[in-house]
Amino acid sequence: MYFGVDYHPEHWVYPYDGTPEAPESRWERDVELMVQAGVNVVRMGEFAWGCYEPEEGKYDFGWMRRVMDLFTKAEIKVVLGTPTAAPPLWLAKKHPEILPIDARGLKRHEGTRRAYCMNSNVYWDYCQRIVRELAGALGNHPQLIAWQIDNGLGGHDTEASFNEETRRDWHAWLKAKYDTIDRLNELMGTRFWSQGVTDWDQVPMPMAAPTVHNPALLIDWMRFCSDTIVAFARMQRDLLRELTPNLPVTQNLRALTRLFDHFDMAEVMDFVSVDSNATIKTKSAELACEIDMMRSLKKTNIRMPDGDCGFWVIEQKAGNVNWQEVNSLLRPQVVRLFTYQLVSRGACGVLYFLWRQPRIGSEKFYGGVLTHTGRGDNRVYQEIKEIGQELKQLGRVLKGTRIAAESCILTSHDNDWNLKFVNQPNKYFNQREHVQLFYNALHDRNIPVDFARPTEDLSKYKLVIAPSLQLLAGGEADLLKLYVQNGGTLVATFNTGLVDEHHIAPDTGFPHDLTDLFGLEVLEFDPLPPGEENHLTIKGAFAATHLHPAKLWCDAIEPKGCQVLASYAKDFYAGRPAMTMNSFGQGRAIYIGTMSHQFFYYDLIVWLRQMCNLFPLLKVPDTVEVSMREKENTRIYFLLNHQNSPVRISFFKPMHDFLTGKTFTGNYDLPPHGVLVLDEQTAQV
Ligand code: GLA
Fold it and tell me: What are the start-end ranges of the E strands in 548-679?
């Protein structure tokens, strides 16, 4: 188990610490404090380009080697960032063409970070040069165990740039995709609003315009920008593989907020690392959902420093952040709880951002492990130290364990981007919230969930949920049919299959290519404004504990062989099916034509759980989050209390907790924000 911090040694030299005689002397104290906290890894250097190369071609990696040497003595491993997220000012001055142009045609200037266009050949050259120099200077250091590429790719809305070089790459990308102009015109539907082109050069980039761009062009633009970012990362990965073949490569991703295909990116990386926003959210199921999404990005070909098989949290907030309106402190023990939530869902490395609150720069009020004083007598340092001691013991037990899920929620970046386009049937529909309704129902019943893209092999899942895949490629629809044909249970919903991969609406009825799978056709759909509701009249096998509303969207369904499970209670489509089930091959395809409240999804999961033989991990009070990591003959359960009050758990057999080493029997009050880590051989709740 890796446990560590994000360290910026370049901030901690004289005059910010150290002395004129020994300007780097603070580093030794930092290493001491890290050792005491149980730190065994640090990430460094992700913004250090200007310190490595203060003037073009004049390199200085000596200072970083001196820091790394200190870590050798302390047996602390190192991950180095390639510093390309923060190009030095001399580079922007010499080559202003690397600066990104925004959708209005305005330059985004130098002076912060991420001020570069990823289509710039000049920038690629400079990146290759610094990465080569860095790997040459430090790549053989014995403490180095992995590289992080760049930092926060796509952050600060830098996924797209509108430079001339971008235009050049865009046209080349389109040419590779469509081959002929005629094909582009046909598949992009450029007859609409007179947008036909006769030459590749005429295809616009979707810059600020009087009204909305062609969604077929927009979706390609999103794909192109994503491919650009992934190519930029791949360029660095290939170089690092050539120069230091034994060192795995990772990158700090954020929970799907950035506009590139994270699955594609995860393929490029040897292992996935994430930045966790845990401190600012309140709902544990939302955090759990994001963690499961990130864990699911890379399921195979994982190559980690210690041969483990999960993911890292390379930036876990240690305290408050600095970018909310009010940046409140994290309450005592909450960092510990969040850390365990990440570990319980598969993390095998946790590094806190950042080691010490910087005295300089724009993040000086960002909560660190140490405060500005650097003394180490602060509350957060003490808490991190305790976690460090615990994880040291737990690491041995957790090594090689993974999360095993038999249910899965589908997610597709193409679809997510498309759902954000304007001119949606209902602008109040929010896919993230829709996914969360299903996720909550599984999470709150302690049923593990993976996420997958529709093109993955789904055969290992007993249950697959596909919420609102409005943009669904023909090939994806075929794979869903195959999954059900072979015995799977698929749940899909309204707002599915309205357009294909070219953003063309079907003339064969909704959902396109899937009407046979579901045994129905959606004749029309009725988006409802917030506050307006229809109701479900339940029929057949599905048992309802509440009166379930139909909100935001009602599909008017014509059944064509399916079984009707619920219908609408009112309006002109009263009596029409709202929820159906169809046998297809050896499996079942369930269709939910509307959105409801959370209780509906609880009922749904109770029903599906029995139908699909899905078992909850443990039966505990609803407010306790449970997850499990397993390997042959070992099952480790994590019980987390996200509440501010204790929760009573009854143990019917003696039970062993790894954290305290104690054995519990009878009633146990899990304290506020408390955590238990139990093993199955002795633990029965
Ligand atoms: C990201 C970056 C860090 C820092 C934090 C602030 O995670 O990687 O450098 O700026 O955001 O939240």
Answer: 549-559, 563-568, 577-584, 587-592, 594-595, 624-631, 634-641, 647-656, 663-670, 675-679
